[in-house]
Structures are given as structure tokens and as C-alpha cells.
Amino acid sequence: MTGKKRIVTTCTRDCPNACGLVATVENGRLTGLCGNPDHPLTRGAACVKAARYARRVYDPERVTRPLIRVGGRFVPASWDEALDLVAERMRTIAAQSGPEAILYYQGYGERTALKLLNRYFFNLLGGVTTLRGSLCGGTGQASQNLDFGERISHDPLDHLNSRAMILWGRNPVSTNISLAGIAREAKRRGGTILLIDPVRSRSTVLADNHIAPRPGADVYLAMAAARLVLAAGAEDRDFLENHAVGVKEYLDILARFEVDELCRLAGVSRADAGLLARTLMAERPASILLGWGLHRHENAHHSIRAIDALAALCGTIGVPGGGVSQGFEEYGPYDQALWGDGLNPPRRTLLLPVIGQEILDATDPPVRMIFVTAANPLCMAPNTDRLARAFRRAEFVVLSGHTLDDTSDHAHVFLPATTFLEETDVMASYGHNYVGPVNPAILPVGQCKSEFRMFYELAGRFPFADAFRTSEEAWLEKLCAPIRAQGCDLAALRRGPFRLDAPMVPYADKVFPTPSGKFQFMTSFDPADIPDPDSDHPYRFLTIAPHGSICSERTMAGHEPLPVVRLAASEAGRLGLSDGEQVVVESPVGEAAATLRAEPGMRPDILVADRGGWIKAGHGLNRLTRDMASTVGNGTPYYQTRVRVRPRFPGGRGERRILVVQNSDRAPGGEFCKELVRLGARLCTVAPEKGQALPDSPAGYHGLVVLGGPPHASDDAASPYFPRLLALMRDFDAMGRPVAGICLGAQLLARAHGGATWTMAETEFGFTELTVTGAGDLDPVIGPALPLPPLMEFHEDSFDLPGGATLLVAGEACANQCFKVGNASYGFQFHLEIDAAIVSDWIGFFRSGDIDASVRSKDRFPEAFFAELARMLPLYVSRSREFCRAVAGGWLRLGAGVVADS
Ligand SMILES: Nc1nc2c(c(=O)[nH]1)N[C@H]1C(S)=C(S)[C@@H](COP(=O)(O)OP(=O)(O)OC[C@H]3O[C@@H](n4cnc5c(=O)[nH]c(N)nc54)[C@H](O)[C@@H]3O)O[C@H]1N2
Ligand SMILES: Nc1nc2c(c(=O)[nH]1)N[C@H]1C(S)=C(S)[C@@H](COP(=O)(O)OP(=O)(O)OC[C@H]3O[C@@H](n4cnc5c(=O)[nH]c(N)nc54)[C@H](O)[C@@H]3O)O[C@H]1N2
Ligand code: SF4
Ligand SMILES: [Mo]
To answer: Is 551 in the pocket of ligand 2 (CB under 6 A)?
Structure first.
């Protein structure tokens, strides 16, 4: 592939927008990803995540060759080795325990047409255990099915006919940008936007008004508004009399409550309820957009049904610009018979919202193998500690994914998947009515394969090979037959999006696919279903969609050391917590450390955080969430979880203040410093090369970290602050306060204690095998972190060990790799702090020729060296990280007895 090309494709992320995109490719490399202006709905829009996604394709953490776990560690393998192993385990386990001993766990990461065939593969295998229920949209859909017979949403463009749009528990500015665009356009046409969300989400910027109800209590708000509509005589008599059933029962429910009582229960003012009622009565037609946030509660069906009922009462059902809309069927347009469920007797399904317990309880047969595709359940399913126990019980776990995330830690085989930019497929949306092409922009990166190709090659290892092994194109022809029947063949679909035959306005004829043919009002409601606040755990824990990423599609390097939790400033004040302080969040299920943001004007009964951070990166908030199924629809009520918050270091006791000296932007504190924070340190970073002053003495600090950087350790002329820093390093040590020097920092440490530093003949660069000395084995910091993984080197200078120093780790090309000196000072010549982003920055820097070292050492570092380094990087980095964390912990403990205020 040469020259510049533009490829029309469709975003396949787990996002209702399913944007039409154009990928720019130069010389075979993806260089841009932006919105396709020719897409009739998404019209050239693409979100902040699209640009990030283009970078993710080449992210240094992306795994690009198969991995097999050997002796507890992943090692690279060929596809044949990996697939032979998977096929052999499948055959053996199915023969010994039946195919139901295999669980197929299909996630939400990518739900394209060809993904239907994953399930077909397992059906050909004999039918395995699969999942039922949902981590995502189950409750909303099932609840709306009760009212409408079948949930059908208005076409998003129909909202342009609305005088008001009510965003009810939905945050389109972050989660659905073209809906945000439609709301803006509706506003320009004179419409109003009302946001109903306990949180002041980013969509507040769209809204003319914001009502913040108590989470899970929207049912009362909807009923309060309904009572006000009735009181005003503004109900749609014709709809109630001719197109609905259950009207009397519904009105009886309403009659049981006074408006003020409903407002109190909803946690809103009477003015709020009045505003909602007025919007529906005066701004006709008003459309209601339900989000997914709304239904992550145990009895969310009451809220959803009460909202449907409110809209029906106001006569907006089946009306252009009206209705209650949520989602669309992403698998709807395809021939679903092709997934082959009829091939076997119905097999066992496990209930997804309680998947950990379900796996643990499965005995007939037990779950022996788990095959996970496009999911990160160990991070995203609720109560992940329990799920981890369940996964550990399985003897063989296969994961197909992109990065070494939380779930990969449980996998025995990792199969590297392509991204949609490397795939041929077709993509429908759960947010609109268009289906679009997925055209490959680039060749697969490294050895990655699409899931289709993986199952294709696995099928080749079984007697049913012929039933599966047909080309992508031929399968897509079959899968998309219903779309062809609507007038769009595959060739046309390759060129651009097609609008499916779906109504702009559902139920326009006021006929509903319910048994009665009419709209069905909710006919029962028990207030006991909506529990009262609990003084022991006073906050509802709302772990909502992050703005900059989708669910857990992140990288290790991209995480802050701890998750941020947002609490009302008034509550923070009451608890004596200050903004930025570390706290512990506790639920009845588990606990996690976090950084507190005290936010003025927030509801006092919620704690809000982004979902999707990884456990191994110090986040993992599903360690706290309850695993339970919603009453209707087998959804997952993540937000039913209640928590309390306490200071992690009451009165600052136990908190360690660490001074970090950063000598260059190129050498940040990386995993070492992040781990210190996770262990409870408060970092005070000083960059003296930028003119920031070093403190006069160690007073107030428990320890000192001196990082690396390009300066030469003995060049005081270039870095005039060095003598001051050397004195500070000595002072810390003299007071028994731990000092860590990394690379340049280690050289400076040697110098501080009398060792000479000098420039080596050749630069050391790359992950290097080192040896631990006898003293290192017994050392309290290094010993527990062993065995030594290959560790990253990038230095031109070395040093002589100062008098009294002990060598702990030695190298071949450069002997002095890690030493201990004085009371509590450690020098690390290798870069134990690196993450993949830091290393890939250095690779670019080193290769660029901008530094002399790379020019001098071209022969020692040929292209093949860097190619292999890139391939091995995810593994090197994850092993280095384990070592780094153990060392950071041991180092921080050295200062356990330090009293820092002198
Ligand atoms: N940037 C970004 N986009 C995404 C995703 C992402 O992670 N990041 N995820 C994708 C996925 S998987 C999905 S399912 C969709 C979700 O799309 P949305 O539903 O728009 O997003 P959520 O953050 O899940 O929830 C929306 C809002 O519901 C509110 N909420 C919570 N409980 C209640 C309640 O009881 N009542 C009311 N009225 N509101 C409540 C939350 O505070 C939140 O602001 O977004 C998709 N798009
Ligand atoms: N606490 C809390 N937890 C939640 C939620 C919440 O609101 N709060 N929301 C829930 C919701 S709405 C959802 S949808 C779920 C999502 O739960 P999951 O589907 O388990 O999680 P994702 O984070 O979307 O992970 C998708 C993974 O698939 C990978 N991937 C993407 N495309 C492909 C592909 O084509 N092939 C393969 N093999 N891998 C691919 C991605 O890199 C990523 O690692 O999480 C739920 N979890
Ligand atoms: S993540 Fe969503 S909004 Fe962003 S480009 Fe993809 S489909 Fe569009
Ligand atoms: Mo979702």
C-alpha cells in the first residue's frame, strides 16, 4: 500500500453513534480518522475518542502476536501453537465433561455482523454454555416491551420535530454526539432541552434546565408530573380511552400519593415537578430520551414504565417529535438464524449480572473452560472479586482482545484481535437506523487476526470445518440478506451507509404489538421496591460513562494512579474531607482507595466516578458493586450499590509526603511514582531545571525520589542545581529518610556519597538481563521483588560505587546497576519506572538521530532490534511493572518510622 488513501468505514465501538468515518492511510499506515460528511445522520461528526482510537491501533501496549502462559507467564507463540492448544483443550474438555463445561463469554467491545458467527462456531462444536441477561441495556428494553409490546425508538432525526427534548438519565455530550447535535439543532429552532440526572453531567451544557432527582427514584418524579398534568386537565383523553389498557389501575396508583409526597420521595422540589409537567404540556410535542444510566437500578422498570406512562398520558406516543426512545437493535438487521441456535438442544445459560456466583455454582458440569471475546469482565462485570474467584477455578481461559487488561491476567491463551480499521464487516447501531460498511483501512497490525479469522482457523481443526469455512464476503452476503431484501446489496453497502426500513415515528397508527393491541400502562407499584436511604452507607455509587474513553478500552499508561470520586462539597465538609485528599470508598462488597473531588452544588446522596478503570491500574471500581439482577429484564443494577467514604489518612496520620525531583519532561515518575501514590504517598514534585526551587532541608518530607533525564551527572555547569541536590540527598539519608535515585538519579546518588561518574564508551539501550548479587537476594527492598525481569536501560553515563555502598544488581555491559548506600538510599541505574508510553517515547527519541548516541551506535541497534522491541514491549512492560511495584513498596516501607515534621 503506497500513497495517500481515504477509506469510508464505520465506527464499531460500543457507542450508540456508530459514526460514519473516513480513515486516512499513507504508505500503509493509518494517519487520520475523522467523521464522514456524507453520512446522513452522523454528518461528519466524530468524537474525541475517534482520534484516540486511531492512536490505539499502534499503541505500544497493544498485543500483536498470540501469547501462551507458560509457568505462570505469557510467552509469545505462533498462531498454530496457540490455536492447536485451544482446540486440544476444547476437544478434551467437551469429550470428558460435555460441551457445557465450556463457557462462551461474548462482550460488548464490538458487535458487528460477523460477530454473530462466533456463536455459530460454538453451536457447531455442540452448543456450549452461554450468557443470558445484560450488563448494559436489558432492563430498559424489557420494561418498554411491557408497555409497547416491542420497544421501538423514534428515528433520532425525528427529534428535530420536538419542541422540547427531555434527556432522562442520558449524557449524549459524552456518549452519543450526534444526539447532542440534534439537541443543539432543536434548540436553534426554538426548542428547549431538559436534563434529568442526579449528576451534573457534561450534557448540562445543552440543557435549559436540569432536574437532579434521587437516583433510582425517577418513578416518583414521573408520577408527580403525571398528577400535575391530570390536575391541569391536560391528559390525552382519546389515547387513554381508545389506545391504552390498564388506565384505571394506573390512575389508582397515582391517586395513592400526594404531589408533595412524590416530590419528597423523588428528592426534587415541587417546582421541579412543575417544570417537567409544564414542559410536557406546553412544549408539545416533547420527546423523551432515556439513557442507560437510568436503568442500572434494581427496580428501574418502575421508573421506565412510569415515564412511558407519563408520555402516554400527555399524548405524545406515536406522535412526530414525541415518544419515549432509548435504543435500537444492533443485531436486528441480520439473518440471526445463521448463529445456529437450532443445531443443538437448548444449552445451559448463566445469568450475566451474577456471573461470578453462577460460575461458582455450576456443577453439572462445572465450568472448566472460559472463552472470552471483546470483553473485560474482570473489570466491567459487577463484584469482580467474586468473578476473579470463579475465573481462577476454571482450568483454561482464552481471551481475544487488544491489550493486557484485567481479564488477560486470568487467561492462559491470549489471541490478539484486529481493530475495525483492519477488518471487513458490516455494522448496525444501537442508537439509530443506519447500517454501515466496515472496510479495512490497513492490513492487520503485527500478527493480529479478526475474530472471524480466529474462529475460521479454529474450525479447521474440527470435523465441522466445512460448515464454517466460507469467506467473509460470502458470509456477509448471507448475514445481510434481510438488508438486500430492503434494496441494498453488499456492494452498495461497501460504499456507504444505508437506512434500514424502520419508522421515523413508531406506533403512529396507535396500534401496539401487545396482546391487547394497545399501550399497556403500569398497573402495579410497591414503594417498598424503591428503598430508603441507608445511614450506614449514605451514598449511591454512580460509576458512569467516562468522557474520553469507552468503558474499559484504555491502557495502563493512560490511568491516573487512583480513580477520582466526586462528592458534594457540603458532604465533604461534614466529613472533614478536603478536595484532592485520598479517601477509602467502602461498600458492603468491597473497598477501594480514591482521590476525592469536593464539588459544590452536587446532590448530597451520591458519589460519582468514571467506570472502566482497571483494577491493576489501581482503579477497578467494580470491586465495590453488588452482583444482582434487576427485577425486570435481567439487567445489572450497578447503581444500586451504596457506599460510605472515609479519609484514608485521618488527620494526615500515616500519609507519606515524598519529594520528587524531576530532571526532564522526558523522564517522568512513571509506575514507580504511581505506585507510591497508590500506597498512600502524597507526591510533591519539583522540576529544578525549570527554575523551581529545591527545598532547603528534608523537613516535612518522608523520602526523596530523584528521577532520570539527559543531563550528565557531573555537568554542574549545565545543571547548576546539582550541588544543592547532592547535599539534599545526603541530608535525607543522614536523617534515615529513604532516597531513591533512578538512572541520572542513581548517578547523582553515587556522586553524593563520593563515587565518581563518567561517560561510557557505548550507550546502553533496551530491556536487558541483569543478575542479582548475594546481597541483593537478602536485601529488604530488592529481595522480595525477585526474580529480576529484563529491565529497561537508557544511559550514557555510569559511576563508581561510593565507599560503603553495596551492589545489589549487576549488569554485563555496565556493572553497577543497583546499589544501596548510607542509611536508606537506593540507586537504580535501570529504569524500573517505565510504562509503555515512556518507552515508546524513548524509542522514537533514540531512533530519531536527535541524540549523538543513536548516531554512534547505529550498528548495534538495527531496525530489527526495534521491531523485536516493539513486539515484546507489552510483555516486557508488564513484567517490569510487577518488579517496580514490589520495589516501590519495599522502598516506601523503609521510611515507616520517619516522623517528617522536623
Ligand atoms: N464517552 C463514552 N461514551 C460511551 C460509553 C463510555 O463509556 N464513554 N459507553 C457506551 C455504552 S456501553 C453505553 S451503554 C452508553 C451509555 O450512555 P448513557 O446512558 O448516556 O451514559 P451513562 O453514563 O451510562 O448514564 C447516563 C446518565 O445517567 C445518570 N443516571 C444514573 N442513575 C440515574 C437515575 O436513577 N436517574 C436518572 N435520571 N439518571 C441517572 C448518570 O448520572 C449519567 O450521567 O454510552 C456509550 N457511549
Ligand atoms: N461499574 C459499572 N460497570 C459497568 C457499567 C457501569 O455503568 N458501571 N456499564 C456496563 C456497560 S453499559 C457495558 S456495555 C459493559 C461493557 O463491558 P465489556 O464488554 O466487558 O467491557 P469493555 O470495557 O467494553 O471491553 C471491551 C473489550 O473488547 C476489546 N475489543 C474491542 N473490539 C474488539 C474486537 O473486535 N475483538 C476483540 N476480541 N476484542 C475487542 C476492547 O479492547 C476491550 O478490551 O460494562 C458494564 N459495566
Ligand atoms: S466512539 Fe462513538 S461518537 Fe466516537 S467516533 Fe465512534 S461511534 Fe462516533
Ligand atoms: Mo453499555
So the answer is: yes
Q: Are strands 349-351 and 130-132 parallel, antiparallel or unpaired?
A: parallel
Which is nearest to 162 in space by CA: 323, 328, 327? 323
pLDDT in the model for residue 1 = 46
Q: What is the pTM of this model?
A: 0.97
301: helix, strand or coil: helix
Tell the residue nearest (CA) to atom 3 of ligand 1: 175
Compute, in angstroms, the gap from residue 18 CA to the centroid of ligand 3.
Answer: 6
Ligand 2 atom nearest residue 551's Cα: 23
Give the residue, by CA position, lying nearest to ligand 2 atom 13: 136
DSSP class of residue 718 equals T
State the Cα–Cα distance between residues 461 and 454, nearest whole angstrom.
Answer: 11
> Which segments of the chain have a pLDDT < 70?
1-2, 852-856, 902
Q: Residue 111: CB within 6 Å of ligand 1?
A: no
For residue 561, how many other CB atoms are within 10 A of its CB?
A: 21
The vertex-249 CA angle with 243 and 255, nearest 5°, equals 120
Atom of ligand 3 nearest to the CA of 50: 5
Q: Which residue has the cell 428528592?
A: 267
pLDDT tens, position by position, 447-486: 999 999 999 999 999 999 999 999 999 999 999 999 999 9
3-state secondary structure 544-602: ECCCCCCCCCCCCCCCCCCCEEEEEHHHHHHCCCCCCCEEEEECCCCEEEEEEEEECCC
- pLDDT tens sequence across 748-802: 999 999 999 999 999 999 999 999 999 999 999 999 999 999 999 999 999 999 9
Q: Cα(385)–Cα(854) distance, rounded to whole angstroms?
A: 47
Q: Which H or E element spans position 415? A: strand 413-416
Ligand 1 atom nearest the C-alpha of 199 is 42
Judge contact between 563 and 530, C-beta under 8 A: no
- Kindly list the distances between the CA atom of residue 422 and the CA atoms of 52, 184, 837, in Å, as whole numbers in the listed order: 16, 34, 23
| Spatial distance between the Cα atoms of 789 and 776, rounded to a whole number of angstroms | 14
Tell me if the bond preceding 285 is cis, omega within 30° of 0.
Answer: yes
Q: Choose one of 402, 551, 616 to mutate for the ligand 2 pocket test, by most ligand atoms within 8 angstroms of C-beta.
A: 551
User: Which residue type does 598 have?
Assistant: A
**Grid cell locating 709:** 533525564
774: CB partners within 8 A, 6+ apart: none
CB of residue 173 inside a 6 A radius of ligand 3: no
Among 11, 199, 451, 552, name the best residue to mutate to test ligand 2's pocket (greatest count of ligand atoms within 8 A of Cβ). 552
Task: Give distance in angstroms: CA of 545 to centre of ligand 1.
Answer: 5
List C-alpha distances in Å: 680 to 230, 892, 893: 56, 10, 11
Quote the radius of gyration of the chain (alpha carbons, Å): 30
How remote is the CA of residue 420 from the centroid of ligand 4, in Å? 18
Beta carbons of 64 and 871 less than 8 angstroms apart: yes
Pocket of ligand 3 contains residue 56 by CB under 6 Å: no
Which amino acid is residue 523, in one-letter code? Answer: T
At 2 the pLDDT is 58
**Cβ(621) to ligand 1 under 6 A?**
no
CB burial of 144-155 (b: ≥16 within 10 Å; e: otherwise) equals bbbbbbebbbbb
Task: Give the list of residues 6+ apart from residue 5 with CB closer than 8 angstroms, or none.
Answer: 24, 25, 26, 441
